[in-house]
Design goal:
16 helices, single chain, about 475 residues, six-stranded mixed β-sheet, alpha/beta
């Protein structure tokens, strides 16, 4: 008997009545089966995960039709807490599911909520910490974690109560190579334990040896399914037509870090110390050339985001010298010269429509230019939509559109292709190339090797808060 069964399920969100996020979806997932939902941003992947875990319609209201069964429960009719006892969820934005302020408390929170015995909680805790490589985070506060570390913690908190079904929405979006491999092994162990796993994902490479099926969605419908062998057998052109990331590993010859002249951005003697964590940054010197697109790479928690926040004048605990065009920039000056697209773009979307969001970042409103920017990122049809009603990938592109409109000489993007499909990744790459051609200094914090290969002209690697190489 299938653990998850969706029969002729259709759904439209209340905020977009009449626009079907799901249209006659049929999907069954057996115990011990791993099913990957793939397809372009906004195709319905996330909505399926919300149907399975009961957030549709209990949290996301709208018009829902069809039959749904999860471990014998009806997520529509049964109380949400009943569904939560058998379904574990990892959201696209892990911060949205945290309830406490430190790592250990977060890991045990769900188990304590369910009234599990203390001895069982302790034994599970050690196993989860070991399985996900969380040893170094044990005593950390959640707000001091990097995006990737938060993602790993979210996976661990879901693992703890031992649910029968696990749904994950873009779980690898902010993870480095090692953390992604650890995530894959965790999913493999869930599969071996007989759990049903449903994953909405653009990064398919780490799942090829784990997944049983890849369900391709278009326009809210499951258009076709692929076995892992069939997916890997698709040609480059076929993957392009489908908008899918490559399921095979990239072998990249990354560009050497380019030297910079006096017209670029330069850091000297940058340090950042947090009392409970220690020294996060210890950078003697790092430079970014004007007009270059420089990838800033390194493991989760290595200090990349902290360096970006320092450059943007948003990291009060960091100290050091920043020059631009040969002139020293104070933190206050940097706030007016640097546009930072953060990892969690929901925190920087402020207006009632996508178009207004772009206009807000302009020095002088220009609706024609705003519409041209939106069109270049495939957002023209969403111009009047509320930013918070968009999918994760669409929100990401709105924030990038605002950065393009800002006309600031330095643009820093933190994981800009998180949650983006292949086509939209290429649109972002094109936008970054357009910026660089105008002389803008572009810095891209990323784990996305395809993005690096597509548009980066230089690279710096950060390890343990230090610049280790330009390779």
């Amino acid at each position: 008997m299938a653990a998850v069964n969706l029969n002729s399920v259709s759904f439209s969100y209340a905020v977009t009545p009449g626009a079907f996020a799901l249209d006659d979806v049929n999907l069954s997932v057996d115990p011990g089966e791993v099913v990957v939902l793939c397809g372009s941003s906004g195709c319905g992947k996330t909505t399926i995960t919300r149907v399975v875990n009961g957030l549709v319609p209990h949290f996301y209201s709208g018009s829902l039709a069809g039959e749904i069964s999860v471990c014998g429960l009806d997520p529509v009719k049964d109380a949400l807490e009943k569904t939560a006892a058998v379904v574990g969820s990892v959201f696209q934005n892990p911060k949205a599911q945290f309830f406490t302020t430190d790592v250990l408390s977060e890991l045990v929170f769900a188990c304590e909520n369910l009234g599990m015995p203390e001895e069982l909680i302790v034994s599970r805790l050690e196993g989860v910490i070991l399985a996900l490589g969380l040893e170094g985070l044990r005593e950390r506060g959640i707000f001091a974690l990097s995006g990737g570390e938060k993602q790993a913690l979210a996976c661990g908190s879901v693992y703890m109560p031992d649910p029968q079904v696990v749904v994950l929405d873009e779980p690898s979006s902010n993870l480095d190579v090692k953390a992604t491999k650890d995530l894959g092994e965790l999913i493999r162990s869930w599969k071996a334990q007989g759990k049903s796993v449903v994953i909405a994902e653009h990064n398919l490479e780490y799942l090829v040896d784990i997944a049983d099926r890849f369900c391709y969605l278009r326009g809210g419908r499951i258009e076709c399914e692929f076995t892992p062998a069939q997916l890997c057998g698709l040609s480059f052109e076929e993957l392009q037509d489908l908008g899918l990331r490559t399921p095979t590993p990239w072998s990249l010859l990354l560009p050497e870090a380019l030297p910079t002249g006096d017209d670029g951005v330069s850091f000297s003697n940058v340090t950042c110390v947090y009392p409970q964590v220690g020294k996060i940054l210890n950078v003697d010197h790092i430079a970014f050339a004007k007009g270059a697109i420089t990838g800033l790479v390194g493991e989760n928690g290595s200090g990349k985001t902290t360096l970006a926040r320092f450059l943007a004048g948003l990291e009060p605990k960091a100290k050091g010298l920043v020059t631009f065009g040969g002139r020293k920039l104070s933190a206050r000056a940097r706030r007016s010269q640097v546009y930072l697209v953060t990892q969690n773009v929901s925190h920087q979307l402020f207006t009632e429509s996508v178009e207004e969001e772009v206009l807000l970042s302009m020095k002088k409103e220009d609706r024609d230019r705003a519409r041209a920017i939106l069109a270049s990122l495939d957002l023209a049809e969403l111009a009047k939509s509320h930013p918070m009603a968009l999918s994760g990938g669409e929100k990401q592109r709105v924030a990038i559109a605002a950065a393009l409109a800002s006309e600031r000489p330095i643009v820093v993007l933190d994981e800009p292709t998180s949650g983006l499909d292949l086509r939209h990744m290429h649109q972002v790459a094109d936008a970054l190339r357009s910026l660089s051609r105008t002389g803008v200094t572009v810095i891209v914090i990323t784990h996305d090797q395809e993005l690096v290969a597509t548009c980066c002209t230089a690279i710096h690697r950060i390890q343990d808060g230090q610049v280790v190489s330009g390779e």
